[in-house]
Amino acid sequence: MNLPFAKQLALGPVLGVESSCDETGVAIFDPARGLLAHTLYSQIRMHADYGGVVPELASRDHVRKLVPLIRETLAQAGLGVADLGGVAYTAGPGLVGALLVGAAAARSLAWALELPAIGVHHMEGHLLAPLLEPDPPAPPFVALLVSGGHSMLIEVAAIGRYTLLGDTLDDAAGEAFDKTAKLMDIPYPGGPALAKLAEQGRPGVFRFSRPMTDRPGLDFSFSGLKTQVLLAWRASDQTAQTKADIARAFEDAVVDTLTIKCRRALAQTGARALVVAGGVGANRHLRQQLVDTASCDGFRVHFPRLEFCTDNGAMIALAGALRLQAGAVETAAIKVQPRWDLQGLSALDEQEAGQSAS
Ligand code: KG4
Ligand code: ZN
After folding, report:
1. Could you give the CA distance from residue 339 to residue 112 in angstroms, rounded to a whole number?
2. How far does residue 311's CA lie from ligand 2's centre (Å)?
3. Does residue 189 line the site of ligand 1, with CB under 6 A?
4. Which pLDDT belongs to residue 358?
5. Which residues of the chain have pLDDT under 70?
6. Distance from CA of residue 333 to its chain's centroid?
7. Are 221 and 211 contacting, i.e. CB atoms less than 8 angstroms apart?
8. Closest to 309 (Cα-Cα) out of 153, 172, 144
9. Beta strands 151-158 and 86-92: pairing type?
10. What is the CA(313)–ligand 2 centre distance, in A?
11. Nearest to 51, CA basis, from 231, 240, 221, 183
12. What are φ and ψ of residue 36, in 5° steps?
């Protein structure tokens, strides 16, 4: 892989561990050969009984699943631990207990094997996931990161040099999908199910607002849409077709809002490429509308493949490999950051040995 910065230390395959929320993800990314293997275990079924993620249960399940997944991933790649050149793990943001499981396992493994290890920012992982695809984007570009916890527009001047252009004032896009689904009795995690239902919905039967698009700025607010859905649902006949029609109107409102703000961010920065990542980036309607807008406006749009939109180990292995190759060095301390500002990261071309990325 040709990396977009000068310094490229020789580095063997990097093991990546993701455990920030309710998915245990493990992958091996080799800077010379690309992604060698990845495995994922989703805890969704366990949390569904509670209607949301239960942090303590999440931590315990990561403890159960992580080591078997590491073994499985190594086997898939045809490698032993002695073949690894580095270890990367999600150090934040996320659930503290869940993060600590991955951080402790990854740091301990690295220490035992005398390998360099690096704590990765989860959202930088999402942002860089499209680099795992053919024809990867190169900075400068604008990134739309839309997940269960974040809705952000970011100006990417270089890898690691991030400026926040817009953020959510309340619910994140994925959170809005999940909460709206819950209002209409679609079980947790409702986002993908609501999107599926929307495919059967008729456009224009219901119409909800495009929040905060009538004024300048790049911030988002999705919680009012939830209320609009609740009122429409309560006043409706609550048939299956109506549910699908409301789901369609909700999805149209979110997709239009995100599209309007992406166009605005591109105009404001002058960037000619857009990267879309995070769980909501798996939404087919959003992907199609952004592809159409890109061809109409003349910018390029890049997405990760569907399975790398939601949480995964591959994006962490890649982001960690890029930072380790650029010379990042961290102490062996097991440290996580449940809250972590993406803008505090160092750019890869500024990263000198001895300087920590976290
Ligand atoms: O990135 P992710 O796996 O986890 C976080 O870092 O938060 O994103 C999960 C979020 C959930 O809110 C989920 O409902 C949403 O992404 N999501 C979707 C779709 N697939 C996942 N939302 C809309 N349409 C989808 N197809
Ligand atoms: Zn995520």
Report:
1. 28
2. 5
3. yes
4. 43
5. 1-7, 351-358
6. 25
7. yes
8. 144
9. unpaired
10. 10
11. 183
12. -95, -35
Q: Are 225 and 179 in contact (CB under 8 A)?
A: no
pLDDT at residue 106 in the model: 98
User: Any idea what the Cα angle at residue 224 is, between residues 222 and 225, rounded to 5°?
Assistant: 70
How far does CA 163 lie from the centroid of its chain?
17
* pLDDT at residue 355 in the model: 45
Kindly report the protein residue whose alpha carbon is nearest to atom 7 of ligand 1.
148
* 198 Cβ neighbours under 8 A, 6+ residues apart: 244, 247, 248, 250, 251, 285
Question: Hunting for tokens 């380790």 — which residue is that?
Answer: 324
Q: Measured between alpha carbons, how far is 311 from 132 in angstroms, rounded to an integer? A: 14
* Ligand 1 atom 26, closest CA: 283
Q: What is the pLDDT of residues 224-275, one digit of tens each?
A: 999 999 999 999 999 999 999 999 999 999 999 999 999 999 999 999 999 9
List, in sequence order, every beta strand (DSSP E) within 23-107.
23-30, 34-42, 86-92
- Asked if residue 310 lies in contact with residue 44, where contact means CB atoms within 8 angstroms, the answer is no
Structure tokens at 153: 């527009």
Provide the percentage of residues in the chain whose pLDDT is more than 70. Answer: 96
Is it true that the peptide bond before 140 is cis, omega within 30 degrees of 0? yes
For residue 210 the two structure tokens come to 């495009």
| 8 Å CB contact between 342 and 123 | yes
- Please, is 193 exposed, middle or buried when counting C-beta atoms within 10 Å of its C-beta (0-12, 13-18, 19+)? middle
Task: State in Å: Cα 16 to ligand 2 middle.
Answer: 14
What count of other Cβ atoms lies within 10 Å of the Cβ of residue 235? 8
Alpha helices in 155-239 (DSSP H): 173-183, 190-198, 223-235
**Strand locations in the chain (E):** 14-18, 23-30, 34-42, 86-92, 117-121, 141-146, 151-158, 161-166, 273-277, 300-302
Dihedral over Cα of 242, 233, 191, 65: its sign: negative
CB of 130 closer than 6 A to ligand 1? no
Say if residues 184 and 132 touch (Cβ distance below 8 Å): no
> What pLDDT was estimated at residue 354?
42
User: Residues, the chain, total?
Assistant: 358
Is the preceding peptide bond at 304 cis, omega within 30 degrees of 0?
A: no
Is 239 buried (19+), middle (13-18) or exposed (0-12) by CB count in 10 A? exposed
